[in-house]
From TrEMBL:
It is a single-pass membrane protein. It is found in: Cell membrane; Endomembrane system. It comes from the Eukaryota. SUPFAM superfamilies: L domain-like (SSF52058). It comes from Octactis speculum. The lineage of its organism: Eukaryota, Sar, Stramenopiles, Ochrophyta, Dictyochophyceae. Keywords: Cell membrane, Glycoprotein, Membrane, Receptor, Signal, Transmembrane, Transmembrane helix. One of its GO terms (cellular component) is plasma membrane. InterPro entries: LRR_dom_sf. This is Uncharacterized protein. Its main location: membrane.
Amino acid sequence: SLTGSIKLFVKLPQLTSLILHKTSVDGDVGIFENNTIMRVLDLGYTKVKGDVACFRACDSLRRIDLSETRVKGIAKAFCATKDLVLLNLGKCASIEGNVTDYQWPSKLGTLELGCCEKITGKLISLKSMRTLTKVAFNDTRVSGSLIQLEDKPNVKELYMSNLEIRGNIKSLAKMKRVVSLYLDGTDVTGDICVFENCDSLKRLVLSESRVFGDIGQICKLISLEIMILGRTSVTGVWSS
């Protein structure tokens, strides 16, 4: 595996894309402070550290993945990056912030903050975001109602496991192209028939929620690869 310090990349001032995902590089992300050229930065699952505040003025960033690294700081640091389409800070234990009043970049399609236990706030922060295709807030301290997600027809992946969220799953009725849906360990309710026309659905995890209905309503979803409905009120017999 590739090793060494990322500080060496300061010698490449014209570098616009750096992808070192799942390598063993280390160093401080502070070397990218005020970098106005970098467009793609993927350091996910590496040993890098540092405060994400250094990215506040990185105006050209479009995609940044720092998942499962040792970076720290306030997630809001990325809100000023107007062209950002992907932000992945998943499994970063020292990332924090209350997302309730965040104004995320208008072009953001992928927002991953899953397993960041210091992230708090309300789902209402997502209400005005029209470009979302993937959202991961699972295992954070975010709470709220599914109604904040009712106008998100482009969402293909939704990870909201183990959150204090409520509401009826019919609020997700417009997500016809959803592929992965995780609402296990929540207080959501509603009839699973809302998903009967979601032909792209591959992963449906609703265990330990308050959903109900006849499993026959979704037995025609031939794309399903994972379905976990334990400790729900779903009944019936699966038939082909």
